[in-house]
Amino acid sequence: MKRIILIGYMGAGKTTIGRVLAKDLGLMFYDLDWYIETRMHRSVAKIFEEEGEEGFREIEHNMLHEVAEFENVVISCGGGTPCFYDNMEYMNRQGMTLYLKASPEVLAAHLRMGRTVRPLIVGKNDEELRQFIMESLEKREPYYSKAKYMMNVDLMDNNEKIQESIEKTKEVLGL
C-alpha cells in the first residue's frame, strides 16, 4: 500500500508531478483542492468568499482526512494545507510526505506561466509577486520542513524537465 503526499508552495509543481508520478506508479491521483471542489460542489474561491479562510481550512482539514485514508494514491495538497490544525503531523502518519521546495524566483516563474488565475496573487506585478512569495515562504517553511522527504524543484517549463523531476522524485522516495 502506497500513499504519497506532495506539499509545497503554490506553483512548485505538486499537481504536475503528482499526476505523472501517479500514472508512472499505477496509483490514483488526487489534487486536494479539486477533491474539495467536487465534494462541496463549489470552487475553492467560492468557499473562501462564502465562509472565509477559517471555514475553508476546516473543510480542507476534513477532506484531507478523507482522501488520506485512500490506499495506493498520490495526493497533491494546497500550499497552505500543512500550515493549519495538525495537518502536517497527520500527513506524516498517513504516508510519505514530500516537500517540493523551490526558490521564490522559480515559484514566480511557474506562477507567471500558469494558466489558472490564483486569487492570492491576481494583479501583482513581478516584484510584488516575488515579495509576496518570499514573505509567505518564511511563514510556511517551518511546516513544510516537517515533511519526511524534501526535493528541490527547478523550473519545469517543458516535458523533458518534468520527466527529470519525476525520476528525481522516485529516487528521493526510494521507488
Characterise this structure.
The chain is globular, with a radius of gyration of 15 Å. Strands 2-3-1-4-5 form a 5-stranded parallel beta sheet, with helices on both faces. The longest helix has 24 residues, at 44-67. By secondary structure, it is an alpha/beta fold. Helix 1 crosses helix 7 (159-173), helix 2 (32-40) crosses helix 3 and helix 5 crosses helix 6 (126-144). The mean pLDDT is 91. Helices cover 55% and strands 13% of the residues. The two termini are 13 Å apart. The protein has 7 helices and 5 strands. It has helices spanning 14-25, 32-40, 44-67, 87-94, 104-113, 126-144, 159-173; strands spanning 3-7, 28-31, 73-76, 96-101, 149-152.
Mean pLDDT metric: 91
What's the order of the H and E elements? Answer: EHEHHEHEHHEH
Low-confidence residue ranges: none
Tally of contiguous helical segments: 7
Question: Quick recap of the structure?
Answer:
This protein is an alpha/beta fold and 175 residues long. It has seven helices and five strands; from the N terminus they run βαβααβαβααβα.
Strand and helix map with partners:
Elements: E1 3-7, H1 14-25, E2 28-31, H2 32-40, H3 44-67, E3 73-76, H4 87-94, E4 96-101, H5 104-113, H6 126-144, E5 149-152, H7 159-173
Parallel strand pairs: 1-3, 1-4, 2-3, 4-5
Helix pairs in contact: 1-7, 2-3, 5-6
Spell out the key features of this protein.
single chain; 175 residues; alpha/beta; five-stranded parallel β-sheet
